[in-house]
Amino acid sequence: MGGIFILLIIFGYFGLLLFISYLTSRGTTGNDAFFTGNKSSKWYLVSFGMIGASLSGVTFISIPGLVGGSGFTYMQIVIGYLFGYATIAFVLLPLYYKLNLTSIYSYLGDRYGAWTHKTGAIFFLASRILGSSVRLFLVADVLDYFVMSRYGIPFEASVIVTLLLIYLYTFRGGIKTIVWTDTLQTLFMLIALVVSVVLITQHLGGTEVTTAGLKSLGMTDWFLTDDPKSNNYFIKGILGGFFITIGMTGLDQDMMQKNLTCKNLKEARKNVMWLSVTLFLVNFVFLMLGGLLFMYVQQNPEIMDLIMQMPEDKQTDRIFPIVALEGGLGAVIGVVFILGLIAAAYSSADSALTALTTSASVDIFNVDKWDNKAKAERTRKMIHIGMTVITFIVILLANAFKDRDVINTIFTIAGYTYGPLLGLFFFGIISKRMVNDKRTWIICIIVPVLIYIFKSYEADWFDGYKSGHEILGVNGLLCYLGLYFISKPKKTEINQASEN
Question: pTM, whole model, 2 decimals?
Answer without folding.
Answer: 0.85
